[in-house]
User: What shape does this take?
Amino acid sequence: MRDQWTDRLSEYLDGELAAAERAALEGHLATCAECGATLAELRRVVARAGALDDRPPTADLWPAIAQHIGVVSLPARRARRRIAFTVPQLAAASVALTLVSSATAWLLIRPGAGGPVAEAPTPAPSAPATLATAAMYPDKRYAAQVADLERALERGRGQLDTATVRVIEKNLRIINRAIREAQSALAADPANSYLNLHLAQEMRRKLELLRQAAALAGARS
Amino acid sequence: MLTTLTTLAALALQQTDTTVPVRSGARLEVNNFGGEIAVKTWSRSAVRVAANHSSRDRIQIVASDQSVHVKSEGGRHGPGTIDYNITVPTWMALNLSGVYTDIKVDGAQNEVTAETVQGEVTVLGGSGTVSLKSVQGSVTLEKAKGRIDLNSVNEEIKATEISGDISAETVNGDITLLQIESANTEANTVNGDITYDGTIKDAGRYRFSTHDGDLRISVPEKANVSVSVSTFNGDFNACFPVKLTGKTKHRFSFTIGSGSARLEVESFGGDIKICRPGQVSKKESDKDKDKEEE
Assistant: This one.
């Protein structure tokens, strides 16, 4: 159930409510468990997003992701004083940031990093953002980065001990299973922010393991 | 600047034993392709390097004001297996790495970085930044303080009597954190249990997450903490009464005391249990059960 304060929670979190509104909202929070829970969710998402690796990407992946999850364009953002993101948008942005961060890590460590990166084709406009969109249907670049890393690993697997290869493949299967289970659960409960964050975490972990494996193979070649 | 370069060609012998003086603040750096790196400490301002190795391997010890660097060359046959026994001053920072290498440290009182691919990492002591990593081996740390970063892929992580900020992550293994004094701890695994027995400090941040495993987390009686619990297929159980708020299908929360600390516990497919300190360690019967499942 939503009430008049639900959409003001992000402003409250940003400290942008007038004193009177702030006092009224705090009074409301004392009696509304649902708003309290939503506020806690918002804080979690913001904290998670804030804790992400903030290395700048070598390629600007944000416009495509922003369009994909329904966040307004950069010029439009500049035109406004501020944007108050909804909970779904914040969660989706958190997922997207996670993916960007992981993809960036790969871009930074991959052979030949630092050179110009071709612009990706703009994805087709998608449905309005929901909690599930970014996580269940990640940007094509995520899949591309995974594929690149898998190819790098395949190229370098001859450099790795067979036991190490087996361990990496076994753990990738474990992560893939976790991703599939989270996606399946999310399909049944698309508004579940825990599942969104959990799926994003497992996807990040897959990239990290692939990156680690590719780096190991690269170090041995 | 004092610079000593010692190259020992052990062509016929299979043992190296040499001692070099070091100045305060110097760091030990060891890279060993395969075998073992065992480091212990003494009160002397010197580093002793004893190594058992093939006659084909050449041990190089390069000492300067800033560091003592130990490495080997295997010639055209490539690097061989070397077992190092190294004794260093207690104050010395350690940077140890290898591929098929077990790493053991006993008595360190400064920063420790240890990284291997196939091998166990076991460290007793350490302060400041302590970073231990193994792809295919367990990681064990005892009696350390500072910023602790523990990472494995296919094995368990154990940390005992630790003080400081802790980050522990593995994919396929348990994470066990016991007797912890921390205001900031995060532990993640995909396929494994997580056990945390330690402090919950005011304004502290604690996050424990697994996909397929159980969580056992301790919350001291006088803690002030907001607890957020998420599980998709698991059960929640507390050893003491809690009043749930913000309850949804797969997530709920509760507050103890003022709630100034934040504790997040998440398991997709496992059970979550919150108890008092000393009540969360895995029972022997559970360990036996785990072994049977293996």
Remarks:
- Residues 183 and 191 of chain B are 26 Å apart (CA to CA).
- The first strand of chain B starts at residue 4 and ends at 9.
- The two ends of chain B are 56 Å apart (CA to CA).
- Confidence is low (pLDDT under 50) at residues 1-12 of chain B.
